[in-house]
Specification:
about 375 residues; Aminopeptidase; Alpha-Beta Plaits; 6-stranded mixed β-sheet; 9 helices
Length: about 375
Amino acid sequence: MNNSIEILERLIAFPTVSRDSNLDLVGYVAGLLESEGISLQLIHSADGHKANLFATIGPADAPGVMLSGHTDVVPVDGQDWTLPAFALTERGGMLYGRGAADMKGFIACALAAALKASKMALKTPLHLALSYDEELGCIGVRSLVETLAAAPHKPALCIVGEPTSMQVATGHKGKIGARAFCRGREGHSALAPLALNAIHLGCDFVAALRAEQDRLAREGARDGDYDIPYTTVHVGRMNAGVALNIVPNLCQIDFEIRNIAADDAEAILRRLRAEADRIAAAAKDKAPEAAIDIEVFNTYPGLDTPVNAQAVAFVKSLTGANGTIKVAFGTEGGLFSRDVGTPTVVCGPGSMAQGHKPDEFVSVEQMRRCDDMLGKLLERLAAGLG
């Protein structure tokens, strides 16, 4: 079973939602590779319930080309699927199932390429890197990144196969995910003016977030390669209150910063912390315990590979592309680029417009184009032109 669509059928059947284990899928992949004599390494999570996989085909003592993908998928809970989510359905040239586009389609093509490569005499190695918990903020891949950073031979090029409709993407924004704890003073709602409503503090802080977003949209740096060409600040959740007749003493706000390369996300966060302190200080006359504390719970770097980089030219030569794009969504590519020092591009089958939705799909044509790209890659690796 080395056809990419047949492999995709097996991959989709594993319900690797991020909250659950990916070990069954990793075991299947390991068995597939080991049956062809391919050496691999598993890097387990601290609790042992998940694992990254790293495999090498060809000489182990030289830098190679790494194909990278994440094995986890987002939940299907509450979505109105008309087809089975964890079974491949082929209909009208489309392949349906959770993860078909994001991003088991690419993993299937990469595995098919790895099996083919095992029967070739590669002069430049091919690496396969599969991770977990990407959908939670590029969390699981960190241990793999540490392993690669310490290796004597780091990959010379990484292709992250997130869905780009097989266009070559050179960048995406970085991200900071943070939570603000707005602390007031509880009280009976009949005596509300004597208390300090934490929701009111939270609303004032949300106004500060909106003001910062307006400033960035008006005055911030620009990168026209993005659909939204400036850094964004977004509020995703507000949680507060126990009962209507109690003035709440705590309001939690989850927000994010997605920054283009020209903007310093930490500087933006410092401005927001200063605004939080100002809002809290103004409320201390009523309640000395007033505070707005901000904790960062997730962050990953952006990707900004120069369009004239050799890595970009190489991948364009495999796809036949004339230009490049940047993508709105984050990937693990920024970590490979920053922490391993490996030039990285994003290129894979399907469109993220289908990702995270019911009846997610990738087209047969996109899978074929990815197979063709990786076939050309193997020819180059066999010639020692990685």
